[in-house]
Amino acid sequence: MGTISRDKKYFIKTWGCQMNVHDSEKIAGVLSLLGYNAVDNEKEADLIIFNTCCVREHAEVKVYGNLGRLRKLKEQKDDLILAVCGCMTQQKEVAQHIAKRYPFVDIVFGTNQVHKLAELIANAKLTGETIVDIEEDEEGKIIEGVPVSRGDGIKAWVAIMHGCNNFCSYCIVPYVRGRERSRKKEHILDEIERLAQEGYKEVTLLGQNVNSYGKGLEEEISFASLLREVDKVRGIERIRFMTSHPKDLSDDLIYAIRDCSNVCEHIHLPFQAGSNNVLRRMNRKYTKERYIELIERIKENIPGISITTDIIVGFPGESEEDFLHTLDVVEKVRFDSAFTFLYSKRRGTPAERMEDQVPQEVKHERLKRLLDLTERITAENNSALRGKTVEVLVEGVSKTHPNRLTGRTRTNKIVHFEGDTGLTGKLVNVRITDPQSWSLFGEVTDEKAES
Ligand code: SAH
Ligand code: SF4
Ligand code: F3S
Predict the structure, then answer these.
(1) Does the structure show a pLDDT above 90 at 7?
(2) Per-residue pLDDT tens over the stretch 312-355
(3) Can you tell me the distance from the alpha carbon of 313 to that of 172, in angstroms, rounded to the nearest whole number?
């Protein structure tokens, strides 16, 4: 790819999960190769890219709201290029809708076209028409070697697999991200070794369901054995991963987390709902009892492990009694934090056609009760850390408290403390003096960290 633009500026806005954020880093990598520089203001940009999410209706509504606003910018600046990509446009009818209703958008592309960006930009310039290029072939093979332009030089996302085969009945991700496919171990390890050489301290291994890593690869390899290999990369001090599906979290993986000194004591393990009835209709393939038993096994084997989760409220047919099972799981597991969502009907998913959709006000009322509980437990778990010393990877000056530094514990909790900016990128021990609900405050200490 040669340079097709000099001194051109681009602006990317990203919605959605870490995988999407990571895709934007690839888009940035390709654009920088093409001679574009990043700006953080739409008005200065020659190219504006929206990388979208469609996991809930709300995500799509926000994108449409932002799209409308761009019409004006385009009118003011004729050679401005507008591109919309990501999960939302991977739905054929949405891609067509955008091309038709927002004709000032120049390029609409899906989740597998990042490497073709130069061609798409050139075509849009040449034809002056909206170019639509989305993957319709479900195979979506993995393209290696796409440059990645990462943020802070400390923490890096590394995709280890793409797509999802689980087809939870509420979820659109398998339709927009295609079939599950794993990257080869050598590619992953090469990337992480390069990150270590560049000075990165932490990697987060990304996939919709990392526990099924390796299926379909020629080499016989499990996620647990991949973790053990990544643990050997010198220079990387922390390894995280997400997301895990409870149905195939093996004992071997629990032992790998326990044994690998760089793998952090944190598992994000969405349970979605507590009622076995609801879980069955969600196609989650585990029961409440199995989930709780799994958590017990994890806690027994990995002292100090932090467990976080995702929960959906108001899945079709969810009764008050079903919902009480969700609260019961929260009480029993005592999550360090929980992301809670109102069920949102998604096009083409089996749950879209289920009867007994729960009325909006019932969903809201349940969500409120759930939040009261999860927030109380998060605060209680945090306050148990008062006086304890924890290891923090320093990320820099705190955005919310500019006279302090900020970083995270191995358990992924945010810590603010006073210190020299020179500590950025280093591991320091911090004694927690003031645990709050959303973050912890503390002071640097020479004491040994307990976790
Ligand atoms: N692959 C990951 C998460 C993908 S989406 C996993 O399986 O854990 C992130 C979260 O969004 C899900 O865990 C779920 O809680 C939520 N979610 C997905 N589809 C949803 C929908 N239709 N309505 C509400 N929440 C949804
Ligand atoms: Fe969606 Fe389920 Fe796949 Fe997660 S595992 S992406 S919730 S279908
Ligand atoms: Fe992520 Fe949203 Fe796509 S959650 S996978 S960006 S639909």
Answers:
(1) no
(2) 999 999 999 999 999 999 999 999 999 999 999 999 999 999 99
(3) 17
* Spatial separation of the C-alpha atoms in residues 306 and 308, rounded to whole Å: 7
To the nearest 10°, report the CA torsion of 314, 318, 322, 326. Answer: -20
Paired tokens of 206 = 């990304």
How far, in Å, is the centroid of ligand 3 from the Cα of 17?
Answer: 5
Structural tokens at position 73: 């910018």
Q: How many helices (H) and strands (E) does the chain have?
A: 12, 19
DSSP per-residue string spanning 128-154: -S-EEE---STT-----------SSSS
Rg over alpha carbons for the chain, rounded to the nearest Å, is 23
Dihedral sign for Cα atoms in the order 151, 57, 75, 118: positive
Average pLDDT over all residues of the chain: 94
Ligand 1 pocket, Cβ-based, cut-off 6 angstroms: 55-56, 170-171, 173, 208-209, 243, 245, 270, 272, 310, 312, 341, 343-344, 346
Cα–Cα distance list, 385 to 179, 262, 305, 417 (Å):
42, 22, 13, 15
Ligand 1 atom nearest residue 55's Cα:
19
Residue with tokens 């739905």: 91
**Ligand 2 environment, Cβ below 6 A:** 164, 166-168, 171, 173-174, 208-209, 245
Task: Write phi, then psi, for 75 (nearest 5 degrees).
Answer: -65, -35
pLDDT digits (tens, 9 = 90+) for 383-405: 999 999 999 999 999 988 889 99
Paired tokens of 169: 């009945």
Domains contained in the chain, CATH given: 8-133 (3.40.50.2300), 150-264 (3.30.750.210), 298-382 (3.30.750.200), 389-444 (2.40.50.140)
Residue at 402: amino acid letter:
P
Please give the backbone phi and psi of residue 198, each rounded to the nearest 5 degrees, phi first.
Answer: -80, -5
Q: Could you tell me the distance, in angstroms and rounded to a whole number, from the CA of residue 57 to the centre of ligand 3?
A: 12
Q: Which atom of ligand 2 is nearest to the CA of 177?
A: 6
Distance CA 202, CA 38 (A): 24
Instruction: Sheet with 266-268: list strands edge to edge.
Output: 266-268, 306-313, 337-342
3-state secondary structure of 69: helix
Q: Measured between alpha carbons, how far is 212 from 230 in angstroms, rounded to an integer?
A: 17
What is the Cα–Cα distance from 31 to 29, expressed in whole angstroms? Answer: 5
pLDDT digits over 241-293, tens only?
999 999 989 999 999 999 999 999 999 999 999 999 999 999 999 999 999 99
